From TrEMBL:
It is found in: Membrane. The keyword Transmembrane helix applies. It comes from Papaver nudicaule. One of its GO terms (molecular function) is symporter activity. PROSITE patterns: MFS, SUGAR_TRANSPORT_1, SUGAR_TRANSPORT_2. This is Major facilitator superfamily (MFS) profile domain-containing protein.
Length: 502
């Protein structure tokens, strides 16, 4: 019993999970705050006066009054910066560790917050967004990997989903801020953007407190330190199997001098394709279109400014509570069951919303009170199903399926895919809504149908499978992906059989 003094306490271990997950709070707050700020008159008057004039013109087309490329650039520039920075983050994550990558992420984000809150012109605003993007790129690279590596096997799904839970909490906090600050003229938008510094500061300080993951330490040659930390976080000295598994994975990783080249090999294709497609599909559910522009969307269907912001708060609360459902169920029912159930629910809700708007919302005028309330309820049902499925699992599955030798590099491709398609959706949604009108919801519904078929045929179950045992127990057992595991190629292009470990 005396040895217990060397182990971390359970509250401290949970504290480490929560501090890392604050990276999701930064990401989520930004998602939520962007749409609210772009609906504030003071913000539009200062940076986008032409959009303000269009918004105030009573006869303006309902679907087109916010269609402005510069407004969309304000939102989407962050994701373009995050896309690029995720590859640099991959190198930092591998060479210097997960916690230092989170430290860098918080530093970039704090610079971006300062520039945005103090912005006096559009250039300053966009530069601030780019720094925020660097922070998001580094944070979204490091946090899910950190959580998957530090979590015990039987809780890995739940611990990793803390990232997405904090994303949803960030969105809810942003919606609350938007709601209460919209009446503070003319500086309310500055406070809304400046409060993004709170989670960034928490992550900055927390990065000095939390331990590095055993996997990262062992990967960087600190074997004894890695073993010590593993004993501390597992709260037992009986960690030989897990330790030896990480060491073997690390030895294999060191044989790979170019992880980018390794990712081009057939054996890397299953986790790479799935990791990237999970992120692409996550965006084509239409969720960020809803979250970015929820206040704008609700103004479009007829809610006044305060009512639309309040509706966004309700949606944010639904988002948080439903993510808790995922934490409770993901390690019990598995990844596939949650994804397939959600596909059905999202497909139905998107289709019905499209039908209601197509029939009842013309270019001018607004929905009737009953129809508008039904749209809000359907959006809540849609967000509910996303929040316990594609939201958290889009990050969980890529973080747990790459072998160590390509983990940070492969996850960088997943993160960059997310940021690329988040950028595309953010930049295109308002224009799509202007041109496609209500049929934009049918567009997303069609993608959800494709996603469901992908899960049925190509996504294996990874519940309760050790991260470094995925090749043997998942990929080599799958009817489609096993053919990619049979052989790779050497530097001369010759086929070399993969060695199956006993």
């Amino acid at each position: 019993m005396g040895n217990n003094k060397k182990f971390y306490s359970k509250p401290f271990i949970v504290f480490c999970w929560l501090i890392a997950a604050v990276g999701g709070l930064m990401f989520g707050y930004d998602i939520g705050i962007s749409g609210g700020v772009t609906a504030m008159d003071d913000f539009l008057l200062k940076f986008f006066p032409a959009v303000y004039a269009k918004k105030r013109f009573a006869k303006e087309n309902n679907y087109c009054k916010f269609d402005d490329q510069r407004v969309q650039l304000f939102t989407s520039s962050l994701y373009l910066a995050a896309l690029v920075s995720s590859f640099f983050a991959s190198k930092v994550c591998t060479n210097y560790g997960r916690k230092k990558t989170m430290l860098v992420a918080s530093g970039f984000y704090l610079i971006g917050v300062a520039l945005n809150a103090a912005a006096n012109n559009l250039i300053m605003l966009i530069v601030g967004r780019i720094f925020l993007g660097f922070g998001v790129g580094f944070g979204n690279e490091a946090v899910p990997v950190f959580l998957s590596e530090i979590a015990p096997l039987n809780y890995r799904g739940a611990v990793n989903i803390l990232f997405q839970l904090f994303v949803t909490i960030g969105i809810l906090c942003a919606n609350l801020v938007n709601y209460f600050i919209s009446e503070y003229h003319p500086w309310g938008w500055r406070l809304a953007l400046g409060l993004a510094g709170v989670p960034a500061f928490m992550l900055f300080i927390g990065s000095f407190v939390i331990p590095e993951t055993p996997t990262s330490l062992i990967e960087r040659g600190q074997l004894q330190n890695g073993r010590t930390i593993l004993e501390k976080i597992r709260r037992t000295e009986e960690i030989d199997d897990e330790y030896n598994q990480i060491v073997r994975a690390s030895e294999l990783a060191h044989q790979v001098t170019n992880p980018f080249k390794k990712l081009t090999q057939p054996s890397s294709r299953p986790p790479l394709v799935i990791g990237m497609l999970m992120q692409v599909f996550q965006q084509f559910t239409g969720i960020n279109a809803i979250m970015f522009y929820a206040p704008v969307l609700f103004q479009t269907v007829g809610f006044k400014n305060d009512a639309s912001l309040l509706s966004s708060v309700i949606i944010g609360l639904v988002n948080v509570l439903s993510t808790l459902v995922s934490i409770k169920t993901v390690d019990k029912f598995g990844r596939r069951a949650l994804l397939l159930q959600a596909c059905c629910q999202m497909f139905i809700t998107q289709t019905v919303i499209g039908i209601i708007l197509l029939v009842n919302l013309k270019a001018t005028g607004s929905l009737g009170r009953v129809e508008a309330i039904v749209v809000v309820l359907l959006v809540c049902l849609y967000v509910m199903s996303f929040a316990w499925s594609w939201g958290p699992l889009g990050w969980l599955i890529p973080s747990e399926t790459f072998p160590l030798e390509t983990r940070t590099t492969g996850f960088a491709f997943a993160v960059s895919s997310n940021m690329l398609f988040t950028f595309i959706i953010a930049q295109a949604f308002l224009s799509m809504m202007c041109h496609m009108r209500a049929t934009i919801f049918f567009f997303f519904a069609a993608w959800i149908l494709i996603m469901g078929l992908f899960v049925v045929f190509f996504l294996p179950e990874t519940k309760n499978v050790p991260i470094d045992d995925m090749i043997e127990r998942v990929w080599k057992q799958h009817w489609f992906w096993k053919k990619y595991m049979d052989c790779d190629h050497d530097i001369n292009g010759h086929r070399i059989p993969n060695q199956i470990q006993p």
